[in-house]
Amino acid sequence: MSAAPLPPPGGDDTPLAYPAEWEADVILTDGGTAHIRPILPTDGPLLRGFWTRLSPQSIYFRFFTARRAVSDADIHQMTVVDQRTRGAIVAMIGDDLVAVAHWEGTVARPTEAEVAFLVEDAQQGRGLGSVLLEHLAAAAWDRGIRRFDADVLGENRQMIRVFLDAGYTVARAWDSGAVRLSFEITPTEQSVTVMRAREHRAEAASIGRLLHPRSIAVIGAARAAGSLGNSVLRHLLTGGFDGPVYPVNPAAAAAGTAVASIRAYGGIEEVPRPIDLAVVCVPPAGRVGCYSQSGPFGGAILQAAAARGVGLSVFVSAGDRADVSGNDLLQYWEEDPETDAVIMHLETFGNPRKFARLARRLGRRKPIVTVYSGRSALDDALLRQAGVIGVDRISQAFDVALLLTSQPLPAGSRVAVIGASRALVRLTARAADAAGLIAEEVLLPGGSG
């Protein structure tokens, strides 16, 4: 997949500050995921590896000529951009760079740009071209560009279809076996509809992987008959699931014993093949939904819930950029009658714009509490705008979620602080004052300093 060759660099290549807001986790048409980010000057080795996985046809479609190797000059042209007149984004799957998209403008015509796309052969047909076009258009719009032009070979029907199906009004002109496509990138009702429809189909495919797994691990599969973990494991073995099931039980694995006559593993990382679904045996069901981007952090959430006797309606520990994202769960919880509050641990927002949109919508009905690792001022601003309560510790997250789900919303800003210790009451009242509340101190009879 591609468009016409990029012209030589021109203008000021002095880069702006790294546009971190362009980073996003995206779901592809088959339910898999990729990470979109701005290109970096250090991406040369990744681009060389990417080049070795391209077919001669993909290279020909991109450069309009046969090429055997990528030169140092090519690498420099693609990676050293100012993200202003010339910009580029890449798609990452795991540690591999699998696609790149560029725009090339000129100082003389600052609102117009030539665009070019190149997607690894093994990843074609998964919707990467459409995703890259959406994100390249959004990034270029941020830099004042309002129109894209692309020259595409006539036989490159797949790339032509990406442009035509994007929801923009596309003008076409044929010349010498290539078609020049020109269109305004101002978001239109049709382009937004196309984007939302693509997201919906991709997210449905992603959830399909969860509901129709090829392999399952049962974390906390106990040996004791009748226990939750043991029952889940035995039901999977006798219920008709025809894929492999792996019990994860560190104690049983250390002792060299089996669970339900199946070898036990000490951790998910010891399982010999990829796992589509991990079933975590959690405390009794409740009204709090939890999501974690970290396995160890997810374990800490379960321990905190068990220690407090809090039941969970849903618990998902998806890992960083897994097939099921936090945004997927926000959409699920919006319609889930069993969930009254949401606790999320995030290491990255994935797609910040989408997160803000979904969180704002869900937060009108159900409180969202986020434990966000290493929050910046920009992160705090995003959480505030989305109506999300950001905290620093798991204990704070449960305190807030339980308070909001067990108590009615206060009518005003006045609170009473009641206790038997004058020092603790005063300390709590001062904290309330600092938060903008009007606190009245009430010391119980017989209370002390």
TrEMBL record:
<dbReference type="GO" id="GO:0016747">
    <property type="term" value="F:acyltransferase activity, transferring groups other than amino-acyl groups"/>
</dbReference>
<dbReference type="InterPro" id="IPR032875">
    <property type="entry name" value="Succ_CoA_lig_flav_dom"/>
</dbReference>
<dbReference type="InterPro" id="IPR016102">
    <property type="entry name" value="Succinyl-CoA_synth-like"/>
</dbReference>
<dbReference type="InterPro" id="IPR000182">
    <property type="entry name" value="GNAT_dom"/>
</dbReference>
<dbReference type="InterPro" id="IPR003781">
    <property type="entry name" value="CoA-bd"/>
</dbReference>
<dbReference type="Pfam" id="PF13607">
    <property type="entry name" value="Succ_CoA_lig"/>
</dbReference>
<dbReference type="Pfam" id="PF00583">
    <property type="entry name" value="Acetyltransf_1"/>
</dbReference>
<keyword id="KW-0808">Transferase</keyword>
<dbReference type="InterPro" id="IPR036291">
    <property type="entry name" value="NAD(P)-bd_dom_sf"/>
</dbReference>
<protein>
    <submittedName>
        <fullName>GNAT family N-acetyltransferase</fullName>
    </submittedName>
</protein>
<feature type="domain" description="N-acetyltransferase">
    <location>
        <begin position="34"/>
        <end position="186"/>
    </location>
</feature>
<dbReference type="InterPro" id="IPR016181">
    <property type="entry name" value="Acyl_CoA_acyltransferase"/>
</dbReference>
